[in-house]
Amino acid sequence: MSKLSTELERAFEAAALRPTAQRFAVLEFLAKDPIHATAEDIFQALNRNDPRASRATVYNNLRSLQKAGLVREVVSEGKAARYDANLHRHHHFVCDSCGKVEDIAWFDLPASAGRPALAGKKISTYEIVFRGECHRCTATNGNRESDNKAGRLT
User: Domains in the chain, start-ordered, CATH in brackets?
Assistant: First the structure.
C-alpha cells in the first residue's frame, strides 16, 4: 500500500466514513494532483480507468466527502464548482482569465477586520478568495497589450 493510500485510509477512519471503492477513487484523484478539479474532471478521469462511475455517483461521493470534512468545495462565480482535498487551512486565488485555482498559504486576518459587519454573528471559519490574473495570463495578456500599443493587433 502506498503512502498516499495509507494517509487516505486514515483520513476515512478519522472521519468515520466508509471508504467505498469509488469514494476512495474520488478522494485519491483530488489528493494526487491538487488541480482543484470540477466534478466533470473527476468523472472523466475516473472513467478512463474504470468506466463504471456515473456522474451522480461522483456528485454523491463529493457531497459525502464534503460532509465528512475530507473535501472542500471552491465556488467560482458563474463557473463550475471545483473541489479541493487540501485540508490544511489555506486561501485561494482564482484567475479571471483562465479559471485556474491556486492554493495560497494561510494567514490570519487582523482581529479588527470586518468586526462591524460581523457583529452578532458567530464565525466558525473563513477563507479568502483572491481574484485577478495568474502569472501565465499576466505574461500572455501583457504581451498582447504591448502588441496592441505597438499597433500589431487589431
Answer: 1-87 (1.10.10.10), 88-154 (3.30.1490.190)
